[in-house]
Every structure is written in C-alpha cells, then in structure tokens.
Design goal:
With 160 residues, the chain is an all-alpha fold. It has eight helices and no strands. InterPro entries: P-loop_NTPase.
C-alpha cells in the first residue's frame, strides 16, 4: 500500500496528505485482524501516522484581538509561498521561538508546517502543543500512540 503512489512532479504532497491517505488504509488492515507494517520514509511522515498531534483549543484571549486576527490572515498559503526559507525561519522565531531554535533555516518544510500549525490552531505554538501532549500522555516523545497495540522499532546509525 502507498508505495510510490505520488509523483512529486505532478503535485505537492504534505505530511497531512500522507496521514490522511495512510490512516484509512492502516485502520482497514487492523480491522481485518492483520498487523500493518509502517516502514521507510521520513520520521516526520511516520510520526504523523503513529502519534496523535491535535492542536489544543485556541486561547480565548486572542479571539477578539484585531492585531492577532490580522497576523493569522497574513499567514495564508498565498502569503507564505512568497517567503524564502530564511524569511519563514524568521517568522517562526517570532511566533514559536522554541521550535525555531530546533530548526535550521533550510528545513523549510518543517518550518512551514510549524507556522501552519500556529495558524490553523488559532495561535497555539507547536512547541506548546507538544509540551501539553507530553504532559497529558505521560509519553515523552510525540504524544500518545494513535493505535492501541503498537510496537515501534527505531534504528539509528552513526553519521560519517
């Protein structure tokens, strides 16, 4: 399933697109009492499938703030697409300093996702959402597992 199913030259495919494509297939495999194997790809994509990452409710203090509403409107896809990776990184440092510190300016996709998370959650920084999920789940990595029974094998190697 989902092996070489997207041609990157034909369309853009985000981590959310992948999760939305893979989740029904994974649930279908599980519903038939089979064991799905999720392998390959980047950790970012696999994590989106295995772990819950739901934005918390927006802070009520922002709900009627015109300056804040204007900022969220400025974070539209159209406006973000006009920015360079360095400009995106600078923007992220203004709205979510902890996440910007962990990201190199060349990690444009991850920076863009953190900005989109901020926009789509109504102003909740990704770093705050992760901190809240870790506290709620008692799991120190990405939050709670999406599936009841999950075995995660993580291979690492030394970089040369």
């Amino acid at each position: 399933h989902l092996f070489s199913y997207v041609n990157p030259l034909d369309r853009s495919h985000t981590v959310v697109d992948y999760r939305n494509d893979a989740l029904p297939i994974t649930e279908s495999v599980i519903s038939r009492s089979h064991l799905p194997f999720i392998v390959g790809g980047t950790n970012y994509y696999i994590e989106s499938l295995l772990f819950h990452l739901n934005p918390p409710n927006p802070s009520p203090e922002h709900s009627h703030d015109k300056q804040f509403t204007s900022l969220l409107n400025d974070l539209s896809e159209e406006n973000l697409s006009k920015l360079t990776s360095v400009q995106l990184h600078e923007l992220l440092s203004k709205i979510d300093k902890p996440t910007s510190i962990r990201r190199h300016p060349n990690e444009e996709r991850k920076i863009r996702r953190a900005i989109e998370f901020y926009r789509d959650s109504g102003g909740i920084p990704l770093s705050e959402a992760l901190k809240q999920q870790h506290a709620e789940s008692g799991f120190s990595y990405r939050g709670s597992f999406r599936f009841h029974r999950c075995c995660l094998l993580w291979l690492t190697c030394q970089k040369e």
